[in-house]
Fold each of these.
Amino acid sequence: MALDKIISITGTAVHLPGADIDTDRIIPARYLKCVTFDDLADKHFYDVRHDPEGNATGHPLDDPRFKGASIMLSGPNFGCGSSREHAPQAIYRSGFRAIIAESYAEIFFGNSTTLGMPCLSASREDIEVLGAAIEQAPATAVTIDLKAMTVTFGATTFAITMPESARQALTAGRWDPIQELLDSEERIRAVGKTLPYV
Amino acid sequence: MGKTLYQKIWDAHTVGSLGDGRTQLFIGTHLIHEVTSPQAFGMIRDLGLQVKYPHRTFATVDHIVPTVDQNAPADPLAAEMMDALRRNADDFGVTYFDLSSGKQGIVHVVGPEQGITQPGTTIACGDSHTATHGAFGAIAFGIGTTQVRDVLATQTIAMESLKVRLIKVDGQLKPGVYAKDVALDIIRRLGANGGIGYAYEYGGSTFDNFSMEERMTVCNMSIEGGARCGYVNPDEKTFAFLKGRPYAPGEVEWDAAVERWQSFASDPDAAYDDLIEIDAADIEPTVTWGVSPDQGISISETIPDPAEAGSEALRASYQEALDYMQLPGGTPIKGVKIDVAFIGSCTNGRLRDFREAAHFLKGHRVAPGVKAIAVPGSQITAVQCEQEGLDRIFEEAGFEWRAAGCSMCLAMNPDKLVGDQVCASSSNRNFKGRQGSPIGRTLLMSPVMVCAAAVKGEVADAREVFEVDGSDSAAA
């Protein structure tokens, strides 16, 4: 099960400003009524993209200028709240391949990494500069480099951060750990024997 | 230098290093429910894998269960989820506390109730409120569905170790102040993201004196403060709670189990990465006014005025919250009209919560126009409440007494807000749309404060409504 080495991502971006954007907002609970993740595309942020009658609210995600964006920009504590993997799945299945935000809730971060969708952290100022740039020129190509740990657009480059373990897992193509976990069957059994179960 | 409980459990459950900072960690106990497990079973089927240690996984159904009549015909999607859990449990030999078992309930109520939740172990579940089980001196945390797959297939996950912050609360809580207020107060102080990167150890005399249910309430909301897990060191209360429960060690193994559990408690000279000290007497009945659990104030305070926020970022976030909540900044939270009152959830849906609420509610009536529901956290909790006559107290006061489930905490079942209704809620999240209406509004508070709001039809100080003077508590 060879995984892609995720080293660089280039695409256009869309900015969703705000703090503490929780996973209920990313994917409302009613869309969790499913036994697969197959139908989550375009359900992301549904209730902020639509009014209660189902009419589009003119959200940036529906702005034709940002159609096809594959990089999402946001604020601090992105993905907080519920552990639902449906949230990063919905974002990924709607075409996104990376997120740049000030910080992330841990479960969301882990779920995204395991999907091969990097969550990079950047300063509020840098995100605002990038947000302003894409507002001016939505077709701006944004490149995330996971080796150099930079974001580049036009003539501008800024630094991004990510826990080293996640960076290594992504760039080495080890972001889905299942095979590595399976490989230590003997050691798992040995540890399990020392741990009583109910 | 001694070790914390976190470090001891982490070390005992370490299978090995994955070489990049991540550890392969053994999961002692795995809990599953209908929402986040079907995809994981699908993945192991696709990969041709088995559930490696089926006796370490326990299942129940909670999120989608209707609470008026648990056996009412489910909608087709809910029925499909219910069927999938049944089939997965059967196919892979997993114990399933289903609706007909008499043991079904919210997974975080069922685990402790059955004695499955035990000290000194790692507990994982595809649910962020798994932190609840930390009340027993376990390292308990929520995981995503792909990690549920990993636990099913290998009983391990890849994870990075956390730092440990000791949150020490000392002294006596004032009358009318509850564990829920302690949780909301901590989150208010440290912020919704204050716990990122940390496990929380809750200590101090306030936690020593707390019942297991109160410890569960605070540990439950660790995630609302950004901490993936929170725990209390195991003590005599922990052991007394567990003794005699179906999955707890029996008489023969009991003493050895207690000795082992005690050995996991943090050493007196353990080093912590951070320390927060709180005087219990400073904590007031707390109510949230916004759309993040850290947007809380004491009942006597006024809703923050964005104009007085310390930074532009804070001003914007206050304004966004107030616009959604349709509340004016600078005005008292007391007196905000409510439409719905909800007591229940994995935060406050246990026997002790209903006892305390019923104790004060008795003889009062829910205000006209307020829809009030009380939803026990498990079938066993329901029976216990009914044996004590608590259901009748709630019903006589004008509450509906429901059957066990997650109910109005998260809107995956018929219990939902309608339009922009305001709900006084004993649950854990006040996110936009959390309770099922995209414009519904949630005010988090303790169950007794929910009763006060239900009776007055508006946010009220339970100490005034019920003349709480400290001599008078169901739990005393």
Amino acid sequence: MKLNELTITEAKKGLADKKFSTNELRDDCLAQIKKVDSKIKAFVTVGEQGEEGREGTELSGIPVAIKDVLSTKNLRTTASSKILENYFPVYDGTVVERIKKGGAVIIGKTNCDAFAFGGSTEHSGYGLSYNPWDLSRVPGGSSGGSAAAVAADECLFALGTDTGGSIRQPASFCNITGLKPTYGACPRYGLLAMASSFDCPGPMAKTVEDCEIVFNWMEGEDFHDATSSAGQIKKHIEKQDKIKIGLPKEYFAEGIDEEVKTLVMAAAKLLEQNGFLLEEVTLPRTEYGVPVYYTLIFSEISSNMARYDGIRFGKDRDSFEDEVKRRIMLGTYTLSAGYFDQYYLKASRVRSLVQKDFEEVFKKVDCLLGPVAPTPAFKIGEKSNDPVQLYLEDILTVSANLAGIPSLALPCGFTKENLPVGMQIMGPAFSEEGLFKIGKRYQELTDWHKRKPEIK
Amino acid sequence: MQIKRVIIGLEVHVELRTASKMFCSCSADHFGKEPNTQTCPVCLGLPGALPVPNKKAIEWTLLLGLALGGEIQSFSRFDRKNYFYPDLPKGYQISQYQQPFILGGKITLESGKDIRIERIHLEEDTGKLLHQVIADEPSTLIDYNRSGVALVEIVSQPDLSSSEEAKEYLEKIHQIVRYLGISDADMEKGSMRLEPNVNLEIEDQGQLYYTPIVELKNINSFRFAKKAMEYEIKRQLEIFQEKRIEKGKGNKQTRGWDEDKQMTVPQREKEEASDYRYFPEPDIPPFFFTEKELTAYRLQSTAIELPRAKKERFMSEYGLSDYQAGILTAEKEMAYYFEEVVKFGKVKNIGATETANVIINKRAKEGISPKELVDFIASTKQTITVSEEDIDKIIDALLAAHPEVVESYKKGKVAALGMIVGLIKKQAGAVVPIERIAGRIR
């Protein structure tokens, strides 16, 4: 087995037992990048950076790939947009700084939809990334490069960001594990803002256990981020057994691929056989999720993009990708006089109704389980010409972002075409530890997450 | 046709003298500093940077609000004001729109007239543009040292009806801000800025008309602001007589003051408020003040004696005249100095009015400590056996006896009077300032 195929836990043990060195570990990852990345194109920038020789910390010498919307000091950060082609930040984002402190070595910056606007990595200014399980398919997005890099063993783990599903959906498409944390659990300082009230940086890794290790380095209050939260982690789902899992009927409704439904339901049954309780529940406002989500994020985006005004970052605004321009225009419209009440304000109100849905349901059950995406990875080009189709892909993921709650995505099987399918477990705010517990139990019972793609 | 009423509203910006900027830890003391030496990712608006509000600045805004008789809102938040300008690195200014910290309040003028305050909110200052010729090319440089400095905006109702009232209103705000110690409010340095909104109510054959509102911007001294307001009053009447254009939607104009031409000139057209696409700042959670916190702020605020109250107390407690009390309470430091002198003076039987006179007439050397001043007054008291009238007589006599001194003085040698000072001291044991002697020369 090559070292790049190890999980963090395995690599930690190997390093501790002096079976190999951190250099060997890193070199195997770089060799894999050299070998497969011409096909996968997960990286925008390959370049090792980190605290060289930092030892004795949990992530010492562990190679990590960072989504290119996270600010990395002196390491080019483009947000996968041409407008930042030559931008070298003067500072590390908080989560980057924290994993570096943990000893992780940055091996490169991964591709995504420009500014994380998209769900397929087809809207990058630096070309497509490809799904390691089927090179004719998208890796998902927007953290598609991060998911593909982990799936193709080009790194041991990656950092992604999730605004409406951007960690979970590519995790599901690429057969890896990813966590969208509670809003505010992992600080946003240094995350190139997409939609400020939704953005969450989070870990993407090969197992739930690894996600938990990385999350514990990332989380916690940051005095650079007024929306970051302190001391509330590890609050919920403390029960050891008889955890009650809700199955929202809207997540198994018409429009969701039959194979996906079957696989997720089978996973639920497996958990039931192993001591968990199942209960059908309802999240009645699920159908409003997508329109509410897009109305709000377009508004925030139109403002967040204003700093790329052509004066300071070397490129003019005609370097913006089409999807970026589309969102700036729509958001400018929804915030305009006479339309603000009708769009932004109304959407904000529905957002609180969606939050209520979750509050209600968590009175009945401890967590929720459902598919991540309505379909497995789709073909490149299949939806890229129809933005609305692409937006509808997010129907099962945006609600967690609207409500600010955590959701853990993990592999739960394969379709007949050998495409991975993921499920997500959502819990109340700051219930990450509980979600990890359930996820780890599931990964003890199954080995979907251990399957590797044959890259061809 | 005649002007029935001049309508002036003032927007006053005050830069707070907090140690750090509004949303980052950079130093807020930007005046005269090397350009771009006090910046960080936050105030440069670098990708990914986030604002964290300055608690002190918020506290000071609340105190100012209470000092002006306003109400702290139990719920308030920041909003984004979106517009493009090169001195605004994020492409939006963090300000307050729908939920400012303070609503209401007033300033009472000496005439007894109340000028109502609409709102007081907190925002961030912009960078500064420097226009220079570099290598024969006209260029614009940006200095971000000022970017993100805390700025309080006090918006009055359009209750002011002359430039004199505007001046008094502004002086009162200046005084209160200095009393609270929250800003040096120096117009020359730009730490206090004002934007008057001016229009006229015109009566013509029994009908009332309103001229379009003009906002006067970028005026850096009160003298210019006064000139600009007065010019506007004339100009708007003339224009109305000629074109009869009334105030209407979208015809608000922005003008500046051209000191060379002695006239107001049109500036970049003001965007309508609605074009700023205000929306709640998602990077900063809203503020909820509990009744307990509000009570604490009110207590803190009542502990500060404001100019009006101090002046009244000086009159009742020390028996000072309105004039004396006005001068001695103009600045907090002066008032404090006076009270210290009175305190130490008590043991030496020096009265408050006497102290007031010495300070106001600048009889003693400037810059001496309260104790030194008490000693000075005591020493003059011990030796002065003559009345003020007698001193005048002595001065007159000495001047008559020394015409050569008077001659030199008239030629501009003020110091020549020093000899007379010495002679008076010898004769009457009193120290008399040169100005007083000069005052007796005819």
